[in-house]
Amino acid sequence: MCSILKQNPDKESNKEYPSNMGQKWTIEEENTLLSELDKNLTIEIIALSHNRTTGGIIGRQRNIAYNMYRTNVSIEEIIIKTKLNREQITEIIARKENPTYSKEKNKEKNKETVKPKNKLKPEKVKTFSLENEVIEIKNEIKFLKNTMNELVGMMKAVYEFEDA
Fold first, then answer.
1. What are the sequence ranges of the domains in the chain?
2. What is the C-alpha separation between 70 and 160, in angstroms, rounded?
């Protein structure tokens, strides 16, 4: 097919992935990513231009935000540079600095009682909440799949390097 795609490391599947998937990011590529975010390009277009997955772009965007935070860049500046909002950045920081954060947050969500608004029945509100949680879980699974695929790609590259 075209050169920006590579065969899936899982030989049972014929699915192809972007050629840079799992490859180490360079400083220049990160700067290009920030420039593209500044131009308000969509994640999908950015992924195509970098020959990476959308999950890879989002993951790098989050890593850049966290690294900026660790170097004492203000939250306002991180928002401007990464196009993430304050809530997303706070979530990223909490997850990176506390590995059990996600589990604790889910426990808190389950403890909260849902109060009906706008004359909705409590069951209806609860359904919306469950739907949102399912969507969030699906997104997390997609992110984990992309991360796993990137790791498999890196491992394959290491083995190929050792064999060479």
1. 5-102+111-163
2. 35
Residue 14, helix vs strand vs coil: coil
Cα–Cα distance, 63 to 50 (Å, whole number)? 16
Give alpha helix (H) positions in the chain.
27-38, 43-50, 54-70, 75-82, 86-97, 101-111, 122-163
Model confidence over 81-98: pLDDT tens digits? Answer: 999 999 999 999 988 888
Q: Which of 51, 95, 96, 61 is CA-nearest to residue 81?
A: 61
Between the two ends of the chain, the Cα-to-Cα distance in Å is 25
Q: 0.85 cut: is pTM over it? A: no
Q: Could you tell me if 125 and 114 are in contact, meaning their C-beta atoms sit under 8 angstroms apart?
A: yes
